[in-house]
């Protein structure tokens, strides 16, 4: 049974998610704020965390930053704020998805299931291959990316986006395909999620960010210059 941690100071939100998650077969745990969430993550191994942003004592972003230091757990952020800055900040911290309140609990659980399916599939693959293009190097077995021998701090989604583009080098990849392959489901809702991840990925790649070409109205392509 997969263990899910709900972190939210609103009892109605926790109860709503718990109802649907329990129905899906999850073993559900709860935390009232960021500090309690960090302590629970230190003492328990959770399969996924659903984290609210605005909470007393310690906000969700700060809690994610601390949790990332001790555990590599898939995290979905919940927030009443849908501004790009908040999404960018969350994805930059390594969250896997960003859901804006009010939300559909059924949709939220679809996202939870898809993230876990994709996460387990990605981490069960060990290809023992290395990709090299000038100063860009990817160690597929270790899921590590280097630029000019410097290891990049990449989130799982950024890594998956980059490697999917590279494995389909010079091919036009539609937005729908990227969302389906990397997020693991037929995406619905705000498609700015993909653009936000691409923006962060290009920034981390530095000089190699220009190798990811935007195809207006279509999607993206990775090509060597």
Task: Describe this protein's structure.
This protein is α/β, with parallel strands linked by helices and 225 residues long. 44% of the residues lie in helices and 21% in strands. It has eight helices and twelve strands. The protein has a five-stranded parallel beta sheet, sandwiched between helices. A four-stranded antiparallel beta sheet has the order 6-7-8-9, with no helix packed on it. Strands 10-12-11 form a three-stranded antiparallel beta sheet. α4 links the parallel β4 and β5. α2 packs parallel to α3, α6 crosses α7 and α6 packs across α8.
Task: Supply the number of helical segments.
Answer: 8
Please report which band the strand proportion falls in: under 5%, 5-15%, 15-25%, 25-35%, 35-45% or over 45%: 15-25%
Rg over CA atoms? 18 Å
Task: Determine the mean pLDDT.
Answer: 87
Helix amount: 40-55%
Major sheet strand order: 2-1-3-4-5
Q: Uncertain regions: pLDDT < 50 for 5+ in a row?
A: none
In one word, what is the shape?
Answer: globular
Structural class: alpha/beta
Largest beta sheet, briefly?
5 strands, parallel
Span of the ends, CA to CA: 48 Å
Reading the helices and strands in chain order gives: EHEHEHEHEHEEEEHEHHEE
* DSSP, total strands: 12
């Amino acid at each position: 049974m997969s263990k899910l941690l709900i972190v939210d100071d609103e009892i109605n939100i926790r109860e709503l998610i718990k109802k649907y998650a329990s129905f899906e077969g999850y073993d559900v745990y709860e935390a009232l704020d960021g500090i309690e969430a960090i302590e629970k993550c230190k003492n328990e191994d959770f399969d996924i965390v659903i984290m609210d942003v605005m909470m007393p004592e310690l906000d969700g972003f700060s809690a994610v930053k601390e949790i990332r230091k001790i555990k590599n757990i898939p995290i979905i952020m919940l927030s009443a704020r849908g501004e790009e800055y908040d999404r960018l900040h969350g994805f930059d911290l390594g969250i896997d998805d960003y859901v804006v309140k009010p939300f559909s609990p059924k949709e939220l659980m679809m996202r939870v299931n898809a993230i876990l399916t994709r996460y387990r599939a990605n981490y069960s693959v060990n290809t023992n291959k290395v990709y090299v293009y000038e100063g860009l190097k990817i160690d597929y077995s270790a899921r590590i990316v280097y630029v000019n021998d410097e290891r990049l701090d990449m989130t799982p989604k950024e890594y998956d986006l980059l490697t999917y583009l590279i494995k389909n080098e010079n091919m036009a990849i539609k937005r729908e395909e990227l969302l389906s392959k990397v997020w693991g489901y037929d995406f619905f809702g705000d498609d700015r999620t993909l653009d936000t991840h691409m923006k962060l990925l290009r920034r981390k790649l530095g000089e190699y960010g220009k190798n990811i070409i935007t195809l207006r109205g279509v999607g993206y392509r990775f090509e060597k210059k």
